[in-house]
Amino acid sequence: MSDGQSVAVIGAGSIGVAFAVVFAATGWSVRITDPDERVRARVPESVGDRLRMLHGAGLMHDHPSVAAARVTAVPDVSAAATGAAVALECGPEQLTVKREIFGELARVAPTDALLCSSSSAIAPGRIAEPLPPEVAARVLVAHPANPPFLLPVIELVPSARTAPQVLDLARSVFSQTGLRPVTVRREVEGFLFNRLQGAVLREAYCLVRDGVATVQDIDDVVRLGLGRRWSIIGPFEGVDLNTQGGIASHALKMGPAYERMGAERGQHDPWTADLVAEVTAQRRTTLPLEDWSDRVAWRDAQLLAHTPLWNAALDARADEAPTGAPIADR
């Protein structure tokens, strides 16, 4: 049986250390391991630096030294996972490596431990394929945005073999750490985060390749436009609030143009009437049209409230630029 609020982190790279910070900052005991002794030796400094940053920003209650004392670097998987309530695999994005780690966890972790992979793209069913049913039932992907101590969303991806109560447990565990669990309902490579990010990156690379814009121009459009909007509302709410009549009106006006843009890249995914109706129904459940104007005003107030921070960032960028270098935002 597991011993309560204890977590094993397997892999002390950037995600492993970030998970250690998230759990230690919220009261969990963390044992973290890595096959590289030099990497393990850097854990106290890496964790301490991030905890001090969070404390300085007023984002955690405990003193950094108190939270840091909850993290222990240990020599192997057995030392990390024995007695752990949760085991987080944070190894390289290689199927063979992940399967090897989960095979070891199956041997040494408690039989009631939650077994999670931080994989960015590999479906949990592939990772758990060699495992016996009683172990595979406790396996799912828990993919965080990086760094999770500053970007508080985590994708929970069960496989067809994951027990429903295990998914419920995962939602509870990660909610306790301040993360916002989002369930991915089907096993697809890349899940939500990297499919959305990948779509933007694919187009960004094409725009550079085709001579449409420079790398800096594209970064500026996202940083100063899309990124600012998406830091407050997502893409569906964004276009819903951008168009009188909401998302149905936006789809009617802009859908054909987006279909042509997709076709230009060899992608044919038109927004069919049924699909638009489903998206519209979900948006109207969240925001009735009679509340649309109030929500638009709220969006504008949020953007206005963040403008001083953005302006400070632009000023800092101007100060760091080489003499004579163009500053696109100035």
TrEMBL record:
GO terms for biological process: fatty acid metabolic process. Residues 190-283 form the 3-hydroxyacyl-CoA dehydrogenase C-terminal domain. The chain crosses the membrane at residues 6-30. PROSITE patterns: 3HCDH, D_2_HYDROXYACID_DH_1. Its EC number is 1.1.1.35. One of its GO terms (molecular function) is NAD+ binding. Pathway: Lipid metabolism; butanoate metabolism. Gene3D superfamilies: N-(1-d-carboxylethyl)-l-norvaline Dehydrogenase, domain 2 (1.10.1040.10), NAD(P)-binding Rossmann-like Domain (3.40.50.720). Residues 6-186 form the 3-hydroxyacyl-CoA dehydrogenase NAD binding domain. Signal peptide: none annotated. Belongs to the 3-hydroxyacyl-CoA dehydrogenase family. This is 3-hydroxyacyl-CoA dehydrogenase. It comes from Nakamurella leprariae.
